[in-house]
């Protein structure tokens, strides 16, 4: 999943960057409302974590502009503006959820997971395919009834493919799941993680489509 963090506070931004990347999310971070609006107009994201008190352009303006363009990307507002009127204004502007600072990181992560599940059209938390069960809420994996350990980046590669069996993912698409801006991407990173997943899941669980990428077959 690729997230955009819009936060002007350097300390908070760095803490969130580290926490979210540790959970396996690809994350881009901008600190200015005007840059956030420009980024959202040109880059696709799975979720936006948005502060309101931003330089350049207020977060509510960024949110309204996003919704006026017809974007349905989930937006979680995380801000120090915690009065009832502020929460109402944020939700009325198009926010999907609202959390006041200071917040507990575990609660924030749970809210992010819930919004991502909802946007994917899954009311329930489990993804089941070919004997494999993934629980995005807990990051637990079970294969044929046995617990399966996956690293955060193995999870980041595997989850989107299991969500969409039969869909071919290019190497570039999977790299986006692993890294955000300014992260160095080694030329064989995806191949390394796919190889590790095949060792754990079986050599036929993820197929290579020559010249195109990788796919988890429907059956």
From TrEMBL:
Pfam families found in the cross-reference section: Response_reg (PF00072), Trans_reg_C (PF00486)
Domain OmpR/PhoB-type: 124-218
Keyword annotations from UniProtKB, A to Z: DNA-binding, Phosphoprotein, Transcription, Transcription regulation
Record has Cell membrane as a keyword: no
Ranges of residues in domain Response regulatory: 2-116
Gene3D superfamilies in the record: 3.40.50.2300, 6.10.250.690, Winged helix-like DNA-binding domain superfamily/Winged helix DNA-binding domain (1.10.10.10)
UniProt DNA-binding region: 124-218
Entry-linked CDD domains: REC_OmpR_PmrA-like, trans_reg_C
Family annotation (InterPro entries): CheY-like_superfamily (IPR011006), OmpR/PhoB-type_DNA-bd (IPR001867), Sig_transdc_resp-reg_C-effctor (IPR016032), Sig_transdc_resp-reg_receiver (IPR001789), WalR-like (IPR039420), WH-like_DNA-bd_sf (IPR036388)
SUPFAM superfamilies: C-terminal effector domain of the bipartite response regulators (SSF46894), CheY-like (SSF52172)
Residues bearing the modification 4-aspartylphosphate: 51
Superkingdom of origin organism: Bacteria
PANTHER family: REGULATOR OF RPOS, TRANSCRIPTIONAL REGULATORY PROTEIN TCTD
Protein name in the entry: Response regulator transcription factor
